[in-house]
Structure to design on (589 residues):
């Protein structure tokens, strides 16, 4: 376990909590007026000032995704949800392959790329953002600040942050705002209300949870005991119940026929998807990654990119039979639209290991034709001279 | 949230650094001239280097010239089938560490190193991979860049690798791309050119 693991377990993780009394309480809920900047003489004002400094650090971070179009797209979703609060919330897309989002009390919101990668449509992304906006609107962090126990923990965390002074430190800081279960319930419900008001089908919120549960279960099945370390299983022991209640709450809100806007999300993320899938596999959580890639390939059987990365996941997992599974996935992917040229390199490597030199040359030749200046082109060319 | 996880992080970090040690590892100056790293790789050294002694890593040596974490030179010597680049105890089952296989190709070794270099969330990018002589074998040389997660320092790296009689020999140098990388690169290249494997004693 290292600092990163700790960060992963912090924050509300874009999670949505058990609905119960909060659902009934929030029926007919209306958004509060915009939150004015608190006086610097108050505890809340001090917290905002601290967050402002951290936000400046985030702006300098190497892990911030500096893509104007993507940032504008995600921020536009935030604005659809936050309505009048839109000018007070800043949306930052952060390169990290984990499912996470968090909101600071001053309106600084982080959305991690691992979360965007997992959203099947814009509505699912909106579900998580809506939940975070819910925390902001309800000013949950201020309540946490004024809770004596949290304040002690928060003070300790502050002692750590200057050491890091980085995204990692910011993650720890975000963890200081780990909300109570009741706060999560309220944020869940506000998120659903905001989704419905913005024209998103609220039922998509429970699907986020369904997909995540499937990944976690797959990881558990693969490793045997992942549940003890999974941030979600660790901190939210009743996630199945939560998913069920979210679904029921969404059905109560109605509006199942609204467009979840899947093509819009796909288009906005297309330039980044390959990098994010590479990042995903670097986590080496093969149970989760395979569940994700199985879902992506099932959703669009003609998705060459997803098919290629399914092969990559098998190859890297390297368990019994994975070589054959990888080869099958690569061969299928090679004939699909959108497949990256790296599929030919992957096939070439497998042919070379098996001593199939003519097939190796053809595959490597196709790779080099597509990527003559690839970083490994010199190495690949050396393979083409093998075997006479 | 409470302090427990923080303390746990510190404790585990120290255990990872010094598995099985009863005394802390210390930096010891390396005498210029011929030396054999981990009893398996003979190299000629020119310049001031220090090596970390007492790490309980029989096949992994860490050197530095300016001091850690500014620059670091890693030697992985004689990694056999099924072994990882470094000895890792009690690795969680859901975070398997990649292990060496004799049939690995250059790309596979790069990926294995990448998993090692990005295990904390650092961003690793392969910049170049090409054939190269190393350890008396037709091996490979790769260059990479990395953004370290902990301090967000941008580094550059160069590595030489080869599989000799079924065992992997890998030498990796990494330093901040500003100033330090190029400062010691000629020395590192010379060390790589001087490397010869020694058979197991």
């Amino acid at each position: 376990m290292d600092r990163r693991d700790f960060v992963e377990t912090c924050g509300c993780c874009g999670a949505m909590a058990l609905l119960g009394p909060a659902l009934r309480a929030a029926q007919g809920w209306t958004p509060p007026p915009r939150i004015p900047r608190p006086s610097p003489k108050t505890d809340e004002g001090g917290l905002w000032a601290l967050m402002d400094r951290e936000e400046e650090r985030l702006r300098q971070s190497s892990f911030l995704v500096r893509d104007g179009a993507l940032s504008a797209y995600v921020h536009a979703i935030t604005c659809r949800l936050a309505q009048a609060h839109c000018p007070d919330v800043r949306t930052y897309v952060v390169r990290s392959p984990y499912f996470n989002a968090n909101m600071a009390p001053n309106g600084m919101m982080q959305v991690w790329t691992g979360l965007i990668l997992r959203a099947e449509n814009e509505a699912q992304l909106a579900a998580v953002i809506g939940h975070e906006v819910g925390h902001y609107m309800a000013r949950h962090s201020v309540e946490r600040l004024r809770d004596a126990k949290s304040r002690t923990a928060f003070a300790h965390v502050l002692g750590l942050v200057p050491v890091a002074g980085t995204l990692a430190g910011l993650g720890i800081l975000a963890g200081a705002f780990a909300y109570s279960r009741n706060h999560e319930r309220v944020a869940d419900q506000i998120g659903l209300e905001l989704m419905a008001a913005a024209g998103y089908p609220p039922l998509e919120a429970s699907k986020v949870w369904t997909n995540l549960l499937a990944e976690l279960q797959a990881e558990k099945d693969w490793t045997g005991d992942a549940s003890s370390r999974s941030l979600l299983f660790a901190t939210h022991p009743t996630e199945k119940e939560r998913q069920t209640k979210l679904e029921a709450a969404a059905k109560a809100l109605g509006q199942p026929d609204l467009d979840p806007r899947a093509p819009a999300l796909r288009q906005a993320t297309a330039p980044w998807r390959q990098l994010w899938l590479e990042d995903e596999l670097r986590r080496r959580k093969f149970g989760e990654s395979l569940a994700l890639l199985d879902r992506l390939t099932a959703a669009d059987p003609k998705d060459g990119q997803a098919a290629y990365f399914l092969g990559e996941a098998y190859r890297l997992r390297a368990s019994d039979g994975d070589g054959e599974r990888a080869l099958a996935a690569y061969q299928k992917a090679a004939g699909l639209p959108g497949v990256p040229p790296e599929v030919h390199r992957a096939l070439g490597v497998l042919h070379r290991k098996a001593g199939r030199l003519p097939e190796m040359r053809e595959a490597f030749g196709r790779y080099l034709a597509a990527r003559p200046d690839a970083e490994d082109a010199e190495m690949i060319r050396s393979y083409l001279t093998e075997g006479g | 949230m409470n302090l427990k996880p923080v303390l746990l992080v510190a404790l585990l970090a120290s255990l990872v650094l010094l598995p099985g040690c009863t005394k802390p590892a210390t930096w010891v100056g390396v005498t210029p001239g011929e030396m054999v790293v981990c009893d398996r790789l003979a190299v000629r050294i020119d310049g001031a280097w220090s090596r970390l002694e007492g790490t309980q890593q029989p096949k992994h040596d860490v050197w530095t010239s300016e001091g850690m974490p500014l620059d670091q030179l890693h030697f992985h010597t004689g990694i056999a089938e099924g072994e990882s680049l470094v000895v890792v105890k009690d690795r969680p089952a859901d975070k398997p560490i990649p292990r060496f296989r004799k049939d690995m190709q250059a790309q596979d070794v790069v990926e294995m190193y990448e998993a090692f270099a990005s295990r904390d969330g650092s961003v690793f990018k392969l910049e170049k991979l090409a054939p190269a002589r190393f350890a008396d074998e037709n091996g490979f040389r790769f260059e990479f860049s990395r953004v370290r997660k902990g301090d967000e320092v941008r580094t550059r790296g160069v590595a030489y690798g080869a599989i000799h009689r079924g065992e992997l020999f890998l030498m990796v140098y990494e330093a901040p791309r500003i100033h330090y990388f190029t400062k010691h690169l000629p020395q590192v290249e010379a060390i790589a050119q001087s490397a010869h494997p020694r058979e197991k004693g």
The radius of gyration of chain B is 17 Å. Residues 4-17 of chain B form the longest helix (14 residues). The interface with chain A takes residues 1-3, 5-6, 8-9, 12-13, 16, 92-96, 98, 101, 103, 105-108, 111, 114-115, 118, 120-121, 123-124, 126-131, 140, 147, 149-152, 154 of chain B (CB under 8 Å). The longest strand of chain B covers residues 123-134.
